[in-house]
Structures are given as C-alpha cells and as structure tokens.
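Is this the right way to post structure tokens for a design question? Let me know if I should format differently. Anyway, here goes:
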C-alpha cells in the first residue's frame, strides 16, 4: 500500500547532487521547507488563473514536483549538515500542511467551496494518524493508497482536465481510505510493541523470582 511513496529512494537519489550542493553552501533546511510552501502556492495560483488544459497541467506538474523535491531535500539537508532538531520536525510538518492547503486554495476558483473544504480536511487525516502513531511510540507510517504524492498527482490531473469536482471527490475519499489503512497499520505496530514489552516484563519477572 506504499503507492508512489515507494519511489522516494529513487527520487532522493536523483536529488543527491542538489542536496550535496545545498549542504556545501550552508542552506538552512527551513529555507527549503518554506520554498516548498511557495511552490505549492504557485501551483494554487496556476489552478486558479490558468485555463484548465495541457498548459495548466504541465505548469502545475512542474510546481508540484518542485514542492515534493523541497519536501525531500529539507530533511536530507538537515541530516547531512547536522542541523536536525525536534523543532525542525515541527516546521517540516507545518510546511507540508501549508503547501497542500495553498494548492487547494486555488481550487476554490474552479470548484464549490464545500467540495474544496471537504478535500482539504480529508487530506490532513493521513498525516494526523501517522503523527498520532509516532507520538504513541510507533514508527512513522507513510505511503498510500492516496498519500501526499498521489494527492499531488490528482491535482495535476485536475489542472490538465478541468474535472475539479470528480478529482477532489476522489482525493477526499482516497485520503479517508488512506487514513483508515494507516490507522490499522499503527494499531498493529503498537500491538506488537505492547506484546513484546509484556513478554520482556514477564521474562524479567521470572528471572528475578
């Protein structure tokens, strides 16, 4: 169920040269995070102002690939430059949400506000589930079926075809399904951790007795 997220290692490898250059130049990870927000906002403006069709699709695709590149590079630059911090993690998550909201704001010009709002709210749910699992001690759950990368792909389809309402409906439903899938994975992971902890405590108690 990782979907397009499975391409992340390949994408990161394509960006390796850029990442090294940014580290050598001392670029701060937060700059890349906010650049990703700016690219997301640019995609939103393109959806709002450029007539739907091939040109809009290409423009939105370029801007959203740049947004995903920034989302990939900020963490990599932070790790490679020794600038990883817990607050940096917060900034990264905030940047991801703002970038997505910025794109969807542009959809207000091509679709009913209720549909856009539903899609925007649904799109946040997979990340909230993943973050809740991390807070509880599970590894971060990523991937689809409709994760961040798939949502970007759907917005490119929206710009290229003009089928705003059907695409946003698919984005919303897919995000809800993804949230449920991640919740099941988080529950399974935490259950396995709890069982392992219980067995370790039982073994320790047996040794002490």
């Amino acid at each position: 169920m990782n979907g397009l997220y499975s391409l992340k290692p390949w994408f990161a490898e394509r960006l390796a040269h850029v990442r090294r250059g940014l580290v050598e130049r001392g670029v701060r990870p937060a700059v890349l995070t906010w650049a990703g927000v700016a690219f997301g906002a640019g995609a939103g403006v393109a959806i709002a102002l450029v007539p739907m069709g091939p040109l809009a699709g290409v423009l939105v695709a370029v801007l959203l690939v740049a947004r995903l590149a920034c989302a990939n590079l900020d963490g990599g630059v932070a790790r490679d430059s020794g600038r990883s911090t817990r607050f940096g993690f917060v900034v990264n998550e905030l940047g991801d949400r703002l970038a997505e909201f910025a794109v969807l704001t542009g959809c207000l010009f091509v679709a009913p506000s209720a549909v856009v709002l539903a899609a925007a709210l649904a799109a946040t749910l997979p990340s909230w589930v993943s973050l809740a699992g991390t807070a509880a001690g599970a590894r971060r759950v990523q991937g689809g079926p409709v994760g961040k990368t798939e949502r970007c792909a759907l917005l490119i389809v929206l710009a290229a075809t003009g089928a705003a309402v059907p695409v946003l409906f698919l984005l919303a439903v897919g995000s809800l399904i993804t949230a449920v899938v991640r919740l099941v994975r988080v529950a399974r992971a935490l259950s396995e951790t709890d069982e392992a902890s219980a067995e370790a405590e039982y073994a320790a108690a047996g040794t002490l007795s």
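Format looks fine. Someone answered above. Worth noting: Residues 3-208 form a domain with the Four Helix Bundle (Hemerythrin (Met), subunit A) fold (CATH 1.20.120.1760). The mean pLDDT is 92.
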